[in-house]
Each structure stands twice: as C-alpha cells, then as structure tokens.
Write a structure and sequence with these properties.
The chain has 515 residues and is an alpha/beta fold. The two termini are 43 Å apart. The protein is built from 18 helices and twelve strands. The C terminus is likely disordered. Helix 3 packs antiparallel against helix 4, helix 5 runs antiparallel to helix 17 and helix 12 crosses helix 13. It has two domains: 317 residues, P-loop containing nucleotide triphosphate hydrolases (Rossmann fold); 173 residues, no CATH class. The chain is elongated, with a radius of gyration of 30 Å. Strands 2-1-12-11-10-3-9-8-4-7-5-6 form a twelve-stranded mixed sheet, sandwiched between helices.
C-alpha cells in the first residue's frame, strides 16, 4: 500500500503502464478523481483514504451512497470479490493485507454519527446568502443583521437567534435605514421565509452548540494512523445546496484555523469533496473566486483538497489548474458536448507517446483509470493507463450494529451528543423586549392616571364655576414616551409566542469566520 515516500495507487500488466504512486510530499497539491457513474471513483477514493490514514494523515470524506462506511471494517477472504482482488493483485504486483482503519462517523442529523454543528456567526452572511439563494438586497439586510449583532453584543449561535435579530431589525427598519441604507420589510420577510424552508429541510440541526472542534477531526489512532472522518451524506444529499455549502464552510474553517506549515513531508489533513459539481452549479463569481483563493492558499497550511466529480468540466478552469494529482476513470461520449468534454479532459494530461489519451479515457474499464501524479520538483507525470489496486478495508456498507460500535468507540459522544443552548441573541432580545413592554405598560398606566386626574379636575371646575389653566403637556409627554417604547410590546409578542419562536430555523454563511 505504502512506500517510504508515497501511496501505491495501482500498477500495470499487459497493455498498461508503470506502477503508479502518489508522493506524500505532494499530497497537499490537491487532486481530481473523475469519471462516469459506475466506473470506480468510490473505490479510488477509498484506497486514497486508506493510504493517507496509513501514513498518519487524518482524512475527511462524505459518504453520499452509504458505501464508504466499510473503511471501518476489515476486508475478508470470504467476500464476494476476494478472488477477483487476488487476481488483480497478482497482475499489478501488490501484496494485499486486509485491515480496518480508524474511523469517526459524523452526521448533520445525528442519526448515523456524532452530530456536527456550527454557529450562525461562524457561517457568516456570504454562505448563508448562497444557501438561501438571496438577492443582493436581501443579502445586504443579512449583512446588517450580522453587523448589528456584533455592535450590540448579541451572539448568533442558532437559528432562533437570527430570527430574533430579523424581528428586531424589522421593528427598527426606519432607524437602521438611515445608518446602513434601505432595510425593506419585504427583504426581512423573504429571509424569514427562506429560513423556514431550511428548517423544513432539516438544516436547523446544523446550527448550535457544542460547535465542531477541528481538533476532533485531526486525531491519530494510538498506532499512528490518521483518523478517517466519514460524513453520512445520503440523507443530506436531498438538499444539494445545503450539502455543498456545509462542505465549503468546513473547508473555509480549515483555512481559517490552521497555521502555515510551508511544504511538509506529508499533508496535515486531506479533504475529499465528493459530488463537487454541486459546489459550482449556479455559484456566483464572487463565491467561485473565494474557492479558488482558498484552494491556492490552503496547501501552505498542509491541507490537500481532492474533488470527485463525473466530468472535469464540472470544475472551473482556475481551480482545475491547481489540481496536480489526477485520476481519470472512463468518460462516455454519447453527444457532441460529451465529445468536446472528452477531448478537453485528455488535454489536461501530459501526453504519453505509447497511446492516445483521449482514446484511453473512453476505453478503460471499471476499476481502471488513466493517471498522472506529481513527480520530483512537482512536475506532472506522464499519463499512464493504470489498474487501480483493491481496498484493504471492506468494500460496501456495514451493518447498523457495526456502525453503533464504531460510534461508541470514538469517545466523542459525551462532547457532541447533547445540545447546549446558552444565553445568546434570542434570550437577550427577549429580555430587552420584556423590559420595554413593562415600561410601556407603566407609561400607559401613568397616562390613564393623568387622564383620570384631568377628568376629575374638569368636573371640579364645572361644579365650582372656575376655569383652569392646567396644561396637558404632561399628558402629551406621557403619550410620546408611550409611543417610544411601544415597539417593545410588539417585539415581546412576536418573541414570546410559539409561532414567533418557530418561524425560523435555517442555515449557513461566510467563507471566512466572522469576527
């Protein structure tokens, strides 16, 4: 599996090229795994995860089809494909030793792994706007909400905090419009509706505390192997934008939190971004520019990012040009567009005089690929036809009992399984609203008392036949004070009712952590 310097990926036989390995010192130069459905991308991802783990490098990957959980269980000689695996190993000259790997399961919904959460503040307005598909005007209002939360000392931890902020902003729209520009009630309402949609999709589970500590993903086992973090994404994929935005947030957190390390002998962490096309579909240019910036700079922090997608054309050229390690499974060319994409994919490789790259990409079978890895001094290797090695761990899903045993063994449950709801924007605004409502009630009582005194004085004047110069200025002043605090009663009603508390549970924000 692993040489002194790299990860063995596959080898040759008759009609194939030289044995192929990924040099660990270039593992942070990013990579691409591409190919049509059913051509072997998942197995390739699995063997790379095994290789990095064996080298002591923690890994993160998402399990979109529930078939990567087998990394936690050893392969078996009784498995259906054992004989085929042994035959391939004999062909490529590889000694396969079945073994399990240290795995931690995570799940946004807390069903198939430890809950994984972040706070609204850590997400920030950019990713939240992307997730909810907000217009520029609506994104502007969301940015105002984050700015005011910072200025007023109102932590945005979960979605009810953000909802409370939006209610408060709506109550003071005229005042804030003078300071920050137009704050339209319609924009506030649109954001609230989108947050409700996210709640219905289950996105509310993402926000809250305890938030994810990256150190819990960057652990190594007692034997020195890196922990493989597997996100259960089969249910999450029902909300593709939520899936892509969550992974982008996690990538941005790595960029934000990790220190510079230069060019390490091996990566500090490897991040596999499966179904990468979901990240770039309909993404605004500003967001793509941010992704390109992170991809360019994060390698100096020892992080390798590997995009997995069906077609290299799914990845923008500026990002594709940074992916030094490439594994291309078969592409099918059924249409004119497919043929153009195939030709373009072939042009991404350093030619091999022994065969035509475009033809090879069409002809390689399942479990085969054309590969190119960075060599000494970071030079792209000549493209080779490669038989990908079999995995050492189990191929395919595991039983619920096996999953529960792995989850219990990590020791992370005590930290993440129980939600903590501490004092934050919702509670603090509720206190303000209650206080304002009480002041409004006292002002009304005072106004009623003054009215009653004035009525009695008028009756006394009529009875005594005298006029009075009594001023009603005090009453007018009282009414003015009452108007000034009346917003509190409305805000208190909205925050205090079940409908007000449940209007919003939504998702996601800025590529870089808000400070």
């Amino acid at each position: 599996m692993l040489t002194e310097a790299g990860i063995f990926v596959g080898g040759g036989g008759e009609g194939y090229g030289l044995p192929q390995e990924m040099l660990l010192k270039y593992g942070n130069r990013h990579g691409l795994i591409a190919g049509a459905t059913g051509t072997g991308k998942t197995v390739t991802l699995q063997i790379l995860a095994e290789g990095f783990s064996a080298a002591g490098v923690p890994v993160f990957l998402s399990d979109v089809k529930s078939d990567l959980a087998g990394l936690a269980v050893s392969g078996s000689t009784s498995a259906k494909l054992h004989d085929a695996f042994m035959k391939r190993c004999a062909t490529i000259g590889y000694d396969l030793q079945y073994q399990a790997f240290p795995v931690a399961f995570w799940d946004l919904f807390g069903e198939q792994g430890h809950p994984i959460r972040t706070t609204v503040t850590e997400m920030g307005p950019l990713l939240l706007s992307r997730l909810m598909g907000l217009t520029d005007a609506q994104e502007g209002v969301l940015n105002i909400a984050f700015r005011l939360a910072d200025e007023e000392g109102l932590p945005l931890l979960d979605l009810k905090d953000l909802q409370a902020m939006l209610v408060w902003i709506g109550e003071h729209a005229d005042e804030f419009s003078l300071r920050y520009g137009n704050v339209a009630q319609s924009s506030v309402g649109a954001i609230q509706r989108q947050l409700l949609v996210l709640e219905n999709q289950g996105g509310t589970r993402l926000f809250g505390e305890p938030a994810l500590d990256l150190a819990d993903m960057m652990r190594t086992a007692p034997d020195g192997r890196g922990q493989i973090n597997i996100l259960a994404a089969d249910k999450l994929m029902a909300s593709p934008r939520l899936y892509a935005t969550f992974l982008l947030w996690l990538l941005s957190e790595l960029f934000e939190e990790l220190p510079e390390v230069g060019d390490p002998d091996k990566p500090k962490f490897v991040f596999f971004f499966d179904e990468a096309h979901l990240l770039f579909d309909d993404a605004p240019k500003a967001l793509i520019d941010k992704v390109e910036q992170v991809a360019r700079l994060i390698r100096s922090k020892g992080v390798g990012v590997y995009f997995i997608t069906q077609n290299p054309a799914d990845v923008p050229d500026d990002i594709l040009g940074q992916l030094g390690n490439r594994i291309q499974h078969a592409l099918r060319a059924f249409t004119a567009k497919d043929q153009k994409d195939l030709a373009r994919a072939a042009q991404n490789y350093r030619p091999n005089p022994s065969f035509d790259t475009e033809t090879a990409i069409k002809e390689v079978g399942t479990g085969e690929a054309v590969t190119s890895f960075l060599q000494n001094k970071g030079v792209p290797g000549v493209v080779e036809r490669t038989l990908v090695r079999p995995p050492a761990s189990q191929l395919g899903p595991i039983t619920p009992e096996e999953r529960r045993a792995v989850i219990a063994s990590t020791g992370l449950g005590m930290k993440y399984d129980t939600v903590v709801d501490r004092d934050s924007a919702f509670e603090r605004l509720q206190v303000r609203a209650t206080k304002a409502a009480e002041e409004a009630a006292r002002a009304e009582e005072e106004e009623e008392r003054l009215k009653e005194e004035e009525r009695r004085d008028r009756e006394a004047r009529r009875y005594e036949g005298r006029s009075s110069g009594r001023s009603s200025s005090r009453s007018r002043s009282s009414r003015s004070d009452s108007i000034a605090v009346a917003f509190g009663k409305s805000l208190a009603r909205q925050l205090g009712t079940k409908s007000g508390q449940a209007i919003v549970r939504g998702i996601l924000g800025s590529l870089f952590k808000s400070r």
